Amino acid sequence: MRLEVILSGFGGQGILFAGNLLALCGMYQRYQVTFLPVYGPEMRGGTCHCTVILSDKEIASPLVLEPGYLILLNLPSFIKFMPRLKKGGLALVNSDLVKKEEITNFEELIKGKRVIFLPMNTLAEEVGAPQALNMCALGAFNGCLEIFSESTFKKALKEMLFPSKAHLFESNLKAYQRGFQEVKKIVKD
Amino acid sequence: MMAKKVLVKGVEAIALGALEGGCQCYFGYPITPQNEIPEIMAIELPKRGGVFLQAESETSAINMVLGASAVGARVMTSSSSPGISLMSEGFSYLIALELPCVVVNVMRGGPGLGGIEASQGDYFQAVKAPGHGDGRFLVLAPYSCSEAYQLTAKAFELADKYRNPVMILSDAILGQMKEPLLLKSLKIKTYPKEDWALTGAMGRPSRVIKSLFLDSKELAERNLRLKRKYRAMEKEIRYEAIFSGEERVIAVAFGSIARICKEAVLNLREKGYEVGFFRPITLFPFPGKALLNMAERSLGKVSLVVFELNCGQMIEDVKLSLCGKAEAISRYYPPSILPFPEDIEKELKKCLKSSGFPKV
């Protein structure tokens, strides 16, 4: 098993938090993992992304040219990373901020690739956690792949939240569960 | 008890390794991308009866390191490229006074203030001339979190063993990437310091640790002694090699780009290409003999391609090591031009083709 994911969105959408959490869940599932955040001016505004690899073998390069999976939370990310998605790969896209009709070469960009649109902002707002759209996305991602259990997620989330943010545990969990359930309506296997 | 497994950044692994290595004092000045090191040391050292002090500048920090080392403490500092340059006067004195310490350089792009992206632009500075005069550091280049942890702990032992500064040379990618780390307890040796440390002259003749030798004979002897010490350090040489003797092209790299190269080499080998991999772990002393052996074993029919995140520095050491017995080619990437494994594969295939040994 080897899973390569690029997560991308605006700075502030919680991309790095979600990527880090995914890597931690992978580690608890006994995978080898790497979590590589961008470390450039992106961190100071603009589009931010990170690369996560989960594998049952040693991981050499933490960099991936053509990932099998994308989690895209805004339009610039969609434009930037869709061309790099592996043929047959899956992109999970935030439909609240990525509108098909605004992308001139949409059909060309998604050719030979699977794309799932979910309104991450809306879903997060519905569970009363508008800031937790990153957890919605992570829930949807795990809903597609079922790499880790919910108890693993809870353990990892607890560890990731600083004591001052511990009260956000429940709302993050709800957002995760909402994303997980919502994607199950689309992916039935 | 089972060792705890944690998901940490490379720089955090360095700090945890330092604590495991028995670091007692940390002096430094903040700079991206290594601030997690002082952050952890600030939390952990006071708990363990150690000293953490944020100096007013890198120049002060390195002189505090010198003072702590002179009285026998296990001491370290960490910085990134521009900060390391500011410390270089202190480095020279530490070498001259034969004072052990650990220096971490999490390299960023240069010259000047450069940027905060990954770079290996300080290779020459680290291995050739950390400061003025004819002095060297023992330089270790980890390429993963667990290696960063182990080598940093080991660095304290080596520094005491040779009474010389040891540098951990890392970069922004290795520093900021997270990987699982098993917090194994390590056996790190200690060396008695009673016979040289400045611990107060009660009951014994006073000692002077100095670097000024106006008597030219004395200075020459001092330099020759240091030279002998660097020779002795060759016992510590470490490297990783994937080589059976059949390979026609070998990728040579250290640090973060070595991981990208290793991925490319493993992919190509799976497809039947005769490519090998060589990764120096000690950059000084340089594992040149191992490279020469590889060239001789393949009767000179091998090309070594040196991949670096700079404009070509380690290539010079590779060429010197080979004594002309095999070809060495430089493939260089300045800061912010980071190759993917696929790019490295292409380069290696090109070299295979031009060396006249096509795919099996």
UniProtKB/TrEMBL annotation, chain A:
Please list the GO terms describing molecular function: oxidoreductase activity, acting on the aldehyde or oxo group of donors
Presence of the UniProt keyword Oxidoreductase in the record: yes
The UniProt entry, under InterPro entries, shows: 2-oxoglutarate_synth_KorC, Pyrv/ketoisovalerate_OxRed_cat, Pyrv_flavodox_OxRed_cen
Annotated Pyruvate/ketoisovalerate oxidoreductase catalytic domain ranges read 11-181
List keywords of the entry alphabetically.
Oxidoreductase
SUPFAM superfamilies, per database record? Pyruvate-ferredoxin oxidoreductase, PFOR, domain III
Q: Which domain of life is it from?
A: Bacteria
Question: What organism, scientifically named, is this protein from?
Answer: Caldimicrobium thiodismutans
The answer to keyword Oxidoreductase applying to this record is yes
* Protein's name according to its UniProt entry: 2-oxoacid:ferredoxin oxidoreductase subunit gamma
UniProtKB/TrEMBL annotation, chain B:
Supply the InterPro entries for this chain.
Answer: 2-oxoacid_oxidoreductase (IPR052368), PFOR_II (IPR033412), Pyrv_Fd/Flavodoxin_OxRdtase_N (IPR002880), THDP-binding (IPR029061), Transketo_C/PFOR_II (IPR009014)
UniProtKB keywords: Oxidoreductase
Record-annotated Pyruvate flavodoxin/ferredoxin oxidoreductase pyrimidine binding domain positions: 17-187
- Is Oxidoreductase among this UniProt entry's keywords? yes
Give the Gene3D superfamilies listed for this entry.
3.40.50.920, 3.40.50.970
Query: Which EC number(s) does UniProt give?
Result: 1.2.7.7
Q: What class of enzyme is it?
A: oxidoreductase
Keyword Coiled coil (UniProt): no
- Start and end of every Pyruvate:ferredoxin oxidoreductase core domain? 249-327
Q: Which CDD domains match?
A: TPP_PYR_PFOR_IOR-alpha_like (cd07034)
The molecular function terms in GO held by this entry are: 3-methyl-2-oxobutanoate dehydrogenase (ferredoxin) activity
Q: Which domain of life is it from?
A: Bacteria
Return any one Pfam family short name.
PFOR_II
- Name it: 3-methyl-2-oxobutanoate dehydrogenase subunit VorB
What species does this protein belong to?
Caldimicrobium thiodismutans
Give the classification, highest ranks: Bacteria, Pseudomonadati, Thermodesulfobacteriota, Thermodesulfobacteria, Thermodesulfobacteriales
